[in-house]
Design goal:
It is a single chain. The protein is an alpha+beta fold. It contains seven helices and four strands, in the order E-H-E-H-E-E-H-H-H-H-H. Strands 2-1-3-4 form a four-stranded mixed β-sheet, with helices on both faces. Helix 1 links the parallel strand 1 and strand 2. The longest helix is centred in the last third of the chain and has 97 residues.
Length: 248
Amino acid sequence: MVIKVYLASSSGSTAIKKKQQDVVGFLEALKIEYTPLDIACSEENRMWMRENVPGEKKPTNGIPLPPQIFNEEGYCGDYETFFDAKEDNQVYAFLGLPPPPGSKEALQAEQVPLQNGTDPDQEPEDTPQEECNGVENGESEELAGEEAAEEGGEEVAGEEEEDAELADGAELEEDAEEAEEETRKEAGEEEGEEGEEEEDVEEQEAQEEEDLIISEDEEELRELEEPEEPQSEEEEEEGADAEDEEDE
């Protein structure tokens, strides 16, 4: 297997040059054999690289930029994916190469975590798949039923609490309305009593005034109706003598 790195020797971009040096320097540090292919000097290399880079890895303009890494005819990735693999100590897996013994990547591959407390190399017991699935499905169904029952109980309890709160609120509103009606009735009765008392006082005063006026009118009528008393003979004679004296 040959690792191919497509480069541009005459690129004017400082960023591209730095990425190419990073990839080449890391491969040389790991003593990984690779073949550099210059796309600036070879139209064939440039066209092959553009045609074999996957569409999802191409930029919006459709022209992939170097460095691009291949393992024989298989596409490995660009600089970004190479950098991520380097950070995760997965360069050999990225390149499709077996890690050398004693390397970090080889040690990570050997340190596979035990699953369910068993050795991954140990052969599992011959347990029918149907039984395993049945147990798992039964347990999951039981758990689902318990969760549903709990949720249903919580919902019912929540609804009961809401109903109780609504009932308490309705009772409080009814009590408040009854209290307001009673206060209104009491206030109306007091106003009615006060109005009746005022009316009685006014009627009594008016009656007294009418009685007073009637008594005064009756006295005047009585004075007018009383006949004058006849004068005695002596008084008549005294009156006549007085008139004669006045004539003289």
